[in-house]
């Protein structure tokens, strides 16, 4: 093990830097050393210059200067290794080794499995099935109907299901077709929750009916890109603009998020989940995202066999301590497939008991030969 690897191992001994990274770090270190001037301080005096012997009483000062130089050199070494080998995200500590191993396997499998080939006239079909929490207050007449006395401030909640479809044409400058089905009750938690779910369903049916829309080039009338990733101002599908090196990518994600979210690391994980959920990210970028998750502290395996909408995978997540909520992404480590994501409340709130998955989405992608022209799928 060389000196840079030994230094790096104080942070994480599970992964050694590549030879290319070590070479870059050494080059920066030696360039810094070469730029120092103590050796050339007397160059202008000439080669024949004579010096008087240093008296013993000055030796202590000389030793102090030498000690300071050693300390300074060590500081320079650490700084250079940090920026050239570890990167700004490299000091975070990273995920639990078991989770990092799964993510590494998923990343390797992802790049081996090519993306679906969408031929002329065909579409990349992205289906998203989800469940989301709905929280509010029960109307007085509904409370009276079920024989309960509640205060206007009493929160009540239920889970609602959604179904969305997106058809991305082979020529992405053509119309993208989006279908959004009306939210419907999925799960309730007692009489109050059931009454609330019925109340909300009536609102959705009136104000949020099934819809089908076409977006030229995948852009809404307001100029917002469908899918993609959040670039700090809006959504973008320019995946080439982001690095594939996991540490550099995570640093960039931190920058894009700014001060959003309850914590820097929690928001970074949520950003990655959102980018994966969009369904349009290419394989090499998905692999980089998996590796970036492995650089986030607090990430661990939360369930070995996590079932989501009929598909089973490994759940890898992180607890956001400010809300005591866990955020998971669920993947198939053998194929690299992103199965979906979920949010779990560990304390419980409103009608939800502790441990409830208050939201989840499952994503599937395939290639189809045509896009629908109506919302009939929402009635199936």
Written overview of the protein:
It is a single chain. The chain is of the alpha+beta class and 380 residues long. It folds into two domains: 3-86, no CATH class; 103-379, no CATH class. 34% of the residues lie in helices and 26% in strands. The chain has helices spanning 3-8, 19-35, 56-86, 97-112, 140-145, 191-207, 246-257, 264-277, 283-293; strands at 123-136, 156-169, 175-180, 184-187, 211-216, 229-230, 235-236, 300-308, 311-320, 325-332, 337-345, 356-368. The strands form two sheets. Strands 1, 2, 3, 4, 5, 8, 9, 10, 11 and 12 form a ten-stranded antiparallel sheet that branches. Strands 6-7 form a two-stranded antiparallel sheet. A hairpin with a 5-residue loop joins strand 2 (156-169) and strand 3 (175-180). Helix 2 (19-35) packs antiparallel against helix 3 (56-86) and helix 8 (264-277) runs antiparallel to helix 9. The model is unreliable at 1-91 (pLDDT under 50).
Identify the notable features of this structure and list them briefly:
380 residues, disordered N terminus, globular, alpha+beta, 9 helices, 12 strands, membrane, two-stranded antiparallel sheet
* Percentage of residues in DSSP E strands: 25-35%
Order of helices and strands: HHHHEHEEEHEEEHHHEEEEE
For the residues shown, what is the average pLDDT? 80
Please state the overall shape, judged from the principal axes of the Cα atoms.
globular
Radius of gyration: 28 Å
Q: Say how many strands there are.
A: 12
Structural class label? alpha+beta
Main sheet, how many strands, which sense, barrel? 10 strands, antiparallel
- The number of helices is 9
> Helix coverage percent of residues?
25-40%
| Uncertain parts | 1-91
Q: What is the terminal separation in angstroms?
A: 61 Å
The count of domains is 2
Protein name: CU044_5270 family protein
Transmembrane segments: 63-91
InterPro entries: CU044_5270-like (IPR047789)
Keywords: Membrane, Transmembrane, Transmembrane helix
């Amino acid at each position: 093990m060389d000196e840079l690897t030994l230094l790096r191992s104080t942070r994480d001994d599970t992964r050694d830097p590549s030879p290319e990274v070590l070479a870059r770090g050494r080059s920066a270190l030696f360039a810094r050393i070469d730029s120092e001037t103590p050796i050339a301080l007397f160059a202008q005096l000439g080669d024949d210059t004579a010096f008087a012997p240093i008296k013993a009483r000055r030796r202590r000062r000389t030793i102090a200067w030498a000690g300071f130089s050693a300390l300074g050199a060590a500081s320079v070494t650490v700084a250079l290794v940090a920026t050239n080998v570890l990167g700004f995200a490299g000091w975070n500590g990273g995920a639990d080794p078991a989770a990092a191993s799964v993510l590494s396997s998923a990343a390797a499998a992802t790049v081996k499995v090519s993306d679906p080939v969408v031929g002329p006239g065909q579409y990349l079909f992205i289906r998203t099935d989800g469940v989301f929490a709905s929280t509010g207050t029960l109307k007085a007449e509904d409370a009276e109907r079920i024989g309960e006395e509640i205060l206007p401030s009493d929160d009540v909640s239920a889970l609602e299901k959604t179904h969305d479809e997106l058809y991305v044409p082979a020529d992405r400058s053509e119309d993208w077709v989006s279908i959004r089905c009306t939210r419907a009750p999925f799960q309730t938690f007692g009489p109050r929750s059931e009454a609330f779910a019925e109340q909300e369903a009536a609102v959705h049916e009136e104000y949020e009916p099934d819809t089908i829309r076409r977006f030229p080039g995948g852009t809404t009338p307001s100029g917002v890109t469908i899918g993609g990733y959040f670039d700090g101002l809006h959504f973008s599908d320019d995946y080439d603009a982001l690095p594939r090196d996991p540490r550099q990518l995570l640093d960039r994600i931190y920058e894009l998020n700014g001060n959003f979210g309850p914590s820097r690391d929690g928001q970074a994980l949520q950003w990655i989940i959102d980018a994966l959920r969009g369904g349009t990210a290419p394989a090499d970028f998905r692999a980089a995202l998996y590796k970036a998750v492995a650089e986030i502290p607090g990430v661990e395996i939360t369930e070995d066999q996590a079932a989501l909408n009929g598909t089973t995978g490994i759940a890898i997540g992180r607890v956001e301590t400010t809300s005591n909520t866990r955020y998971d992404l669920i993947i198939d480590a053998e194929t690299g497939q992103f199965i979906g994501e979920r949010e779990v409340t560990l304390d419980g709130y409103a009608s939800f008991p502790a441990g409830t998955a208050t939201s989840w989405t499952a994503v599937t992608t395939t290639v189809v030969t045509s896009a629908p022209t109506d919302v009939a799928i929402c009635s199936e």
